[in-house]
Amino acid sequence: MGPVNWANFLSGGRAVLETADSFGWNGDRSSADAGYPGELSRVDAVIASGAGTVVLVAPTANDRNTMTAQQSIDNSRIMIERLAAAGLVVVVLPDYPHGSAAFPGLILPAAQQTNWEAVNAWTLQQQGRNVYVIDTAAIMRDPAAVNGQAAAGLLNDGLHLQQQAAYLIGRAMLPLWRRLFTPFFGFPSSNHDGTTARTIAGLDTLNPYLNGTGGSHGAGGSGTMPTGWTSQLSAGLSAAFAKKTTTGFNGQAYRDDESGPLTKDWLEIVVSGTATQAAEVILLRQNYVAAMAAPHRAMAEIEIDPGYAGVNVVNLYAWQGDVAASQARAFASPGPNQSTPLPAGGLRGVLRTPLFTFTGTQNRLNLNVLPINGAVVNATIRVRAIGCGTGL
């Protein structure tokens, strides 16, 4: 779910997000309706999962179902009360605005808009002990419109979130995420982690702190390539690699961040060119052998300087090639639209995949960039550490 992944990335990967703990159902209602099972049917499974926090997307009565506003409110009340009574922290995202100037056909009719307003107003009042509500309508609504539609550029098709909307909601969730979850130090944050003697228990990949100069470039790469790593640029792009030490990011000193060291060592990658297709290019790759039958995850700490252009997504994934392909993605753009740039402004955080189990031995760990086809690309990306293993 986009907002949750953004909140987790921006907070440094504090929450443990696992695929098995996703109980969402695209287009679902609060209770059984029109062939959908309803969120109520999965409350017991959420409670039994052992999770400590649940993010609940609260559906409303709208033009796609037959429920009244009161039915939606009653269903949401049951879910929130049961989850909270079971000891879970409940984070509620009220239903998003429907339609926009670009998608007028999905703007709610007046009667349904009245229902939508009633359900969302009730939902906002549920903020209380162990229940937190994020005002998604305040974040997304077009302030110049009287019909509750979303602002331009926030909906992919008039209903589903664009990357910018997911980012804005995730950013609004960030203070809560920092309050609920402690900093995650899968990669120790000392500035001295870069020594070649440093090891991390359970790591299958080598050289996580990107030391040395023994790596190799494929097409389009130049500069310092750390030992054990390769690059492969294409689609009209090139990249220059260099080791850098920084004392802050986007005008904020690391010393002012409660979870960071005074300085950080990075591999800085400056990507440039004009993209000739929407195809991922490889900034960093390592082939390696994984310990089978043990749960793994991949992780990378990155920064992307303000002023980037032409980038749709920065993506971390682990891949195996000697059996059916298996990928574990931490970060991806909304699938149907590869022309949406990353949200404006600098970004820093931790890409962290769900756990997965390898069934083959021919494995790769990649950090990729997906450019926007035809766009001029300019991005400065720094990687402090990257790896895959059982210890993350």
Describe the protein.
This protein is α+β, with helices and mostly antiparallel strands and 392 residues long. The protein has 6 helices and 18 strands. The strands form 4 sheets. Strands 5, 7, 10, 12, 15, 16 and 18 form a 7-stranded mixed β-sheet that branches. Helix 1 crosses helix 6 and helix 3 packs parallel to helix 4.
The overall pLDDT average reads 84
Largest sheet: 7 strands, mixed
Instruction: Give the termini separation.
Output: 21 Å
Q: Overall 3D geometry? A: globular
Number of helices: 6
Low-pLDDT runs of 5+ residues are: 190-198, 332-336
Using the CA coordinates, give the radius of gyration: 22 Å
Order of helices and strands: HHEHEHEHHEEEEEEEEEEEEEEE
Helix content: 10-25%
What's the total count of β strands?
A: 18
Q: Mind sketching the topology for me?
A:
Elements: H1 2-10, H2 43-48, E1 53-58, H3 69-85, E2 89-94, H4 110-124, E3 131-133, H5 136-140, H6 163-180, E4 216-217, E5 221-223, E6 230-232, E7 237-246, E8 248-249, E9 252-253, E10 264-274, E11 281-288, E12 295-304, E13 311-320, E14 326-327, E15 347-352, E16 356-357, E17 363-371, E18 376-389
Parallel strand pairs: 1-2, 2-3, 4-6, 5-7
Antiparallel strand pairs: 6-11, 7-10, 8-9, 10-18, 11-17, 12-15, 12-16, 12-18, 13-14, 13-17
Structure keywords:
alpha+beta, 392 residues, 6-stranded mixed sheet, globular
Quick summary:
By secondary structure, the chain is an alpha+beta fold. The protein is 18% helix and 28% strand.
